[in-house]
Amino acid sequence: MKWLYIFLGIIAAFLAVLFIFGEETTSSDIPTQASLAQQAVAKVGQDNVYMIDVRTEAEWQESHAEGAVWWGLEEELKQGNLPNIAKDSEIYIYCRSGNRSAEATSILTNGGFSDVSDFGAFNNWTAAGGTTASGETVLP
Q: Among residues 8, 36, 47, 126, which one has the fewest Cβ atoms lying within 10 Å of its Cβ?
């Protein structure tokens, strides 16, 4: 029984040290898709910054983020075709609802791209004040 008390005392001391000296991580430390969309709006058009729309080409032509390029998840990324841009480019990905952009982010990260952010749904772009365009497909 004595060993049990010693063991529990050691665990309690360890937890106290972690509580006192541990680095606190809060949900505010993790960027939200809305805040990533705001970053993208602020950086659109800068050198080495790309906004990639991974929706279908028909969705792109209907409306897309102004300054973005199209690189469809189904048509390009899932076929093994990665965009011909520098691997250290700052990349922001979006789609219609956030599902395809999450998958595209994973594919690009696994493909060696080091700075990929998923701001999820296209409406995050417009909610952040981003302007839209329509028409002809622009490739990276």
A: 47
